[in-house]
Amino acid sequence: xxxxxxxxxxxxxxxxxxxxxxxVRYWVLVDILDRPADDSEVQEARxxxxxxxxxxxxxxxxxxxxxxxxxxxSPYTAQGAVAALALLxxxxxxxxxxxxxxxxxxxxxxxxxNGGFSLTKKLRSGIFPCSTxxxxxxxxxxxxxxxxxxxxxxxxxIEDMSTDxxxxxxxxxxxxxxxxxxxxxxxxxALPADMGSAQSGRVVERLxxxxxxxxxxxxxxxxxxxxxxxxxxxDLLSALKALAAHGYARDTRFAPLLRLVLGRQDDQGRWLCxxxxxxxxxxxxxxxxKWVTLDALRLLKQAGRRE
Length: 307
Hints:
By secondary structure, the protein is mostly helical. About 45% of the residues lie in helices and about 5% in strands. The chain has helices spanning about 15, 20-30, 40-50, 55-60, 80-90, 95-110, 130-135, 135-140, 150-160, 180-190, 200-210, 235-245, 255-260, 290-305; strands at about 230, 270, 275, 290. Helix 5 (about 80-90) packs antiparallel against helix 6. The radius of gyration is 19 Å and the shape is globular.
């Protein structure tokens, strides 16, 4: 038994590997069990992903120009490109010409000339840490790692997060925006190796310290951080995953926060779904969640590697 498995109250793997959800099955085989891409079960699971009703629905709603939603210039609407691409990424859909067209539409209509992604079309005032960092992983996943626009977004993120007021987006009572720290760390976890630098390392350290040194009030202001959503929401599980991706699982400040996440599992080693997307609900609230449990196992495995 692996060290991370010893932290579970039960064994959720048979439940997660049920072929009924080929996306979860695929990610468990690859991320948790370390199966190679040419493994027959991995190939079988991935081949089943496009046949899921939600995947079919998402692509059926895509317009010929590549965008989703009524307005191609507004990718941040509930049914726009951001939500659709994030779901397709989460579901493990294989990159193809449709995902490429979707990413191209997103970049054309939300990227400012400085490289950042703007919530208000291309206006500089609409750029926040979360609007750039959070979307870089799906752009890299869908094959745009070397696209000049994506590299410009990485360069912007590093430069923007180097400023003194990097996490002051004006929406968090002028305190450090912890959501922004999570999003920026998620983006930098996908940073191409040749773009890594002393500056990007300092940015990661600063963002990690913002999350690890925060004065959490889990009985009050941060109570909702213990409710884990699908797709990923701004919560403690998201924060710890972002930290672990950058090697902070060995930090002494990490352990008590991890214990809080472990304390949310049931006696079968499963976690509940606390919130869902109203537009495309993937699971049911207050029911055992395969997606949250998968993310918890990803966290535990990554943390175990750092111990």
